[in-house]
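Notes continue from the previous slide.

Worked example: a multi-chain complex. Inputs as given:
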Amino acid sequence: MNIVTRIWGTLISRPPFYVMAIFLLFMLLVPFLTDDLYLIGVLVLANVYAIFASSWDILSGYSGKENFGHTLFIGAGAYGAAYLNLYLGVPPMLNLLLCGLIGAVFGVLIGIPCLPLVGPYLALATMAAASIAERLTMILSKYTGGEEGLYGLDPITDGPVGDYYLSLILVIITTIILMAIGYSKQGLILRSIKEDETASEAAGINTTRYKLVAFAISAFFAGMGGAFYAHYQMYTGPSSLSIIMAVTIIIVCMIGGMGTIVGPVLAAYMLTVSNEFLRSIGDLRLLVYTGLLVVIVLFLPRGVFTVILERLPRFGQKSRGV
Amino acid sequence: MVALEILIYGAVLSGIYALLAVGFALIFGVARVINLTHGAFYMLGAYITYALSVLLNVPLILSIIGGMAIVFLLAICLDRFIIERIRTTMINVLITTLALSLFADQVILQIFGPDNRNIPAVISDRVTLLGVDIAGQRLLSLIISVAVIATLWLIITRTRMGNALLATAQDPEAAQLMGINTGRMFMITMGIAAMMAALAGGIVGSFLTVAPEMGMLPIIKAFSIVILGGLGSIGGSIIAALLIGYLETIVAYLISFNATELVPLVVIFITLIFRPAGIFGKRRGF
Amino acid sequence: MTKDGLEIRAVTKTFEGLTALSDVTFSLEDGKIMGIIGPNGAGKTTLFNVISGFLRADQGQMVYHGKDISSLKPHQVVDLGMARTFQIVRPFKSMSVFENTIVAALSPRSRRSRPKGVKSDETAMNVLGRVALDHKRDEPVSNLPMGDLRRLEIARALATYPQFILLDEPFSGLSLKEMDALAGLIRNLLDEKCTILIIEHKLKILMSLAPRILVLDYGKVLADGTPAEIADNESVIRAYLGRRGHAGVDTTN
């Protein structure tokens, strides 16, 4: 009983928590409100982007290590899922976990050399790493299918509604874990690294270790998301590694509000859904995203949802924790 | 024979990279801004030249100048209305300029479609240099690159405006106190650099692919060249441009054309990790 | 030399040909306080950066409690019980006073050193109480005046349970009343057997706290002695008179 009241207390005292909870509960009801399979499909895509964006946020939004090659981890998961499933017959559900781990391994491999880099150096190094991977899929087309990619992965559930619920459950798991980290003392340490890494070291924090763990966690969920996406489409290709995708993820996070998890998740839904409504006038995703981004960096540099969340009331007893 | 071909073709490629990278380095050196729309300026230079010369039958030289002028104006507006307001936050500048260049790709894609275009050459004859048969336009692009960079060098080192630019690059606050309008210096730098990129786009259009996404790889390369050369160092950028240009040419001739894009990326990644200040840079820009 | 205290032997540090520290040697016993003075650019802050692991010395050795600290990283130095403050304050700007302090209370040393059952929140509140910032715990640091920011620097250092503190111009920007309070806090720390190395250009207050002063000039140790000895030292007088007669604020960081 005690634990229930404690969770409830935390939930209602923190706007990011109750906003996320209400939103995800509503999303659980969506299949009961509509039969429109196209809309359900769009929402699956939104779920996938929510995972990509929130996993970027836990590393880059929190610790300030802006990763311009998040797609490397997504691609590692997607291609990993394809190989494991096509050649070894690993079932899709198990792939979600395994490819999360593959992503995490890539996160550590990229994280270690990139840790000392800051600002534009890190941006370029991560961008270069993802571009190298993208190029390799072209050069090694014998094994990767090149531009065509790899086809014939097993579907992960038996239909659109199943895909929807599975992806939503993944969003729920991801956000619960990432928010638990982000709003915990570990999250506070990551924020201190973003603010002033020198001061954080002077406070006795082994910043290298925290950054590396953040790389691994971020890459785990990206890899898991990539694996889901590959099984959902039953296909994976070099577009899962493209810079455009990496940039889109960053834009989503910046519009939503970096370092909040909630902001990027809500922005992923807002942008994916609005983008689909605009599809009738051509593929305007980037035009809309860029336009919005410019407005946001000029007028709301901390993001749309950060500002809204701060204005929402806190209920119950004010939490004394961090 | 192959060695001579590599020598000449490598010089042409290096010249174009230098034209792009020097402008990019200039912006960073003076304004401390990493402007990733630079690749889009290159692409726009090519498309405007194409539209004017092929679609509207404007003489080619005038079309190239027209492309440079329009891109100059775009760059100044970009600086005035967007970059000037977000200069202090590196991530905002990086992602906004990157997004804007993707935005430009999309606009061009909507207008011109995804097909490759061809811009006629100013010199359509082929010439023989040191026994190597080469398109006249390639040679011209090399000459123009060298001439433009030399002119820029003279402007920076010999003129009053160049002095003001250097003063701004060294210490914007002190420059401001000495009566230099640093905001204007930033704007001029952006304009000049963008014009150089547009010029590059206009002259390569007869022998390189003109397509909406043509600016994407060059910008990663210009970014890389500038970091290899030590952020903000123009001399370093030229040397780094030669390195990357020749490296790509050698890889294309001796290994495989497929690997040309890969090798420089790997070199960049490794350099960043072992020498983040660049090969020649003494200090880190950040 | 026993295994106590800090021993600095022949430490040298150059930046691109400029010598910032040249053959600096001194030692400091546990529980003692030593002041460091010197003109602008004398290498005072560089010395702190080298000791606390933010810069690597080119030559020389630094031993604390018998352990070579020359190649340790900053957080490892903190882990041995040496904390520092910065001359130019470095708060985590988007965080509250309490959150700033808690980061240090989450360091491995703090977790290990505090009494069992005490949480990091309590450690943070304790040290905020010691520097009289507890009433501002939830304020964002962007609202704080300089005096409070200086005390926050010290609170963050204290939250790591240091046995040795390096204070870099802690009195600059403080009002007279705040200076008195800080001097009181430093005396308390000394009573608790904490060792203190303090850079300060406010000579009067420094002399009242530190029975021993080290003078740096051009990266060299010019003099090492009691305030009275320092005041009579010919070369110190010359170094100071040569530069308009006072030790300025060292802006190298």
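Summary box: Chain C has a mean pLDDT of 88. The beta strands of chain C are 6-15, 18-28, 33-37, 59-64, 67-68, 82-84, 164-168, 195-199, 213-217, 220-225.
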